[in-house]
Amino acid sequence: MAETVGVTIVGASGRMGQMLVNAVRADARLHLVGAVERVGHEWIGCDLGTAMGGAALDLAVTDDAGTAIAACDAVIDFTAPAATIAFAGMAAEAGCVHVIGTTGMSDDEIAQLAEPARRATIIRAGNMSLGVNLLTQLTRQVAAALDADFDIEIIESHHNQKVDAPSGTALMLGEAAAEGRGVALGDVRDSGRDGITGARTRGDIGFTAIRGGDIVGEHDVMFAAEGERIVLRHIASDRSLFARGALKAALWGQGRGPGEYDMLDVLGLRR
């Protein structure tokens, strides 16, 4: 491994992309080697710093993802499912760590990461924060301790520009609750209630998605029974915590063997 870890950011113009650029530049353990955007994007060929509205960084934004990824030790990816799958193949070919914060991936799309993970280190998480991953562990434990007399509802709130629902974090919490109950989430998931839905099915795990304003991210896991409720909550007030988690994952992944990991592994919370 080089003295500092070389990082390529894909989707560099996005809100998270720009935050990741600034986070890498502020971390003495890392250095920026690539910034990637989609073909035809207005930033292609521009200096990254200038495009972001600041001083020049002597690094041009490129649409040649393969070359940019081949030059790095870790690629950090908060893009879209189809792009993430393509980047996973490139990262495996280059032998670099692929940190994935992309949400909205289907089970089939996630399954497509298995092949590149046999050749490279993939760290994928619906949420990169320490607090959310602790919440995930607590959700699993509480779900295991309570029977189906306690209905489980996951309520998530995000800004009005978020394009997927439920959020990746909400689904991660749902998976944890289902695992605690010893069931498959796909068999008990209840999303998008509208109209005359009938009574709630015992044992279902419900999801509610709220979109508005500039909410960074709020997640509640509610266990509701006759006469009592238990509510576990995480509130993110600063998006930079996701960037910090992604950088931690990029550093942790250096020297790891091929495989699929998540933030529980990175944070040492895996039981």
Task: Write up what this structure looks like.
The chain has 271 residues and is of the alpha/beta class. It contains 11 helices and 11 strands. The chain has helices at 15-26, 48-51, 65-70, 81-94, 107-111, 114-117, 130-145, 168-181, 185-188, 240-252, 263-266, and strands at residues 5-10, 30-36, 74-77, 97-100, 121-124, 151-158, 189-191, 205-211, 217-225, 228-236, 259-261. Helix 1 (15-26) packs across helix 10. The longest helix is centred in the middle third of the chain and has 16 residues, at 130-145. The two termini are 29 Å apart.
Descriptive key words:
single chain; about 270 residues; alpha/beta; Rossmann fold; Dihydrodipicolinate Reductase, domain 2; 2 domains; six-stranded parallel β-sheet; five-stranded mixed β-sheet; 11 helices; 11 strands; EC 1.17.1.8; DapB_N
What overall geometry do the principal axes of the alpha carbons give?
A: elongated
Helicity, as a percent range: 25-40%
Low-confidence stretches: none
Quote the average pLDDT: 95
> How large a portion of the residues is in β-strands, by DSSP E?
15-25%
Total strand segments: 11
Please tell me the CATH architecture of the largest domain by its name.
3-Layer(aba) Sandwich
Short description:
The chain is of the alpha/beta class and 271 residues long. The protein has helices at 15-26, 48-51, 65-70, 81-94, 107-111, 114-117, 130-145, 168-181, 185-188, 240-252, 263-266, and strands spanning 5-10, 30-36, 74-77, 97-100, 121-124, 151-158, 189-191, 205-211, 217-225, 228-236, 259-261. The protein folds into two domains: 5-124 and 239-266, NAD(P)-binding Rossmann-like Domain (Rossmann fold, 3-Layer(aba) Sandwich); 130-236, 2-Layer Sandwich (Dihydrodipicolinate Reductase, domain 2).
